[in-house]
């Protein structure tokens, strides 16, 4: 891998999977299925695998829709790094639109949403609810990067 | 290469309308789900069950579509239940708060039984 930020700890290269997905809805399922396969191999429970699938799909969908604005020439890069403690998933877009940080802090309220024209805005909140750690930063590409971590219960 | 396909059908059981969803409930599902809901409402549906059949991918856009249905159900004073969700999506729907507006059941049969209880209660004369 050329990007040093994505380098796995020495000797753990076999635990890193990197996907480059076109910014077209539907491809988030490739990331979901990869996450699922990796998490099952690592010994995550069925419930945690389901949570991971939802979180990964939301992160990649956000990158496709918002970060890369559906430009299929732009890639969403998803890096899965497994360790003895858990799984780190980095989702980076190419930043046609930079994520408004206030969105990352928002907790949607269904009572308000019911009376609003916009029924959405649940994705990032769901990721934060379902994952053990979530960080937002700037990707090396200049786009948005979301890192989520799910720990193995031991 | 990767298609998001959702099959939506409607049927009636004992005065209860059932909207069956089979496939992915994502942003591409809006027209089909909203259309099915409007169709049964036009036919006079008061009791509606959205029944998920093999929908193992429901994302936040799909949840937003269902919240849109809930909004209309409230406006039309209908009763809505959701059935057939996996335990994971039952959990997600409760987290989002949808369970405050639509009863959530593991199976269609449980949803039908609950709806029949609502029908019966609604048909009984109000005690003075």
From TrEMBL, chain B:
Q: What positions does the domain STAS occupy?
A: 6-115
The molecular function GO annotations come to: anti-sigma factor antagonist activity
* CDD domains associated with the record: STAS_anti-anti-sigma_factors (cd07043)
Q: Which InterPro entries match?
A: STAS_dom, STAS_dom_sf
Q: Which residues cross the membrane?
A: none
Q: Name one Pfam family in it.
A: STAS
Q: What is this protein called?
A: Anti-sigma factor antagonist
- SUPFAM superfamilies from the UniProt entry: SpoIIaa-like (SSF52091)
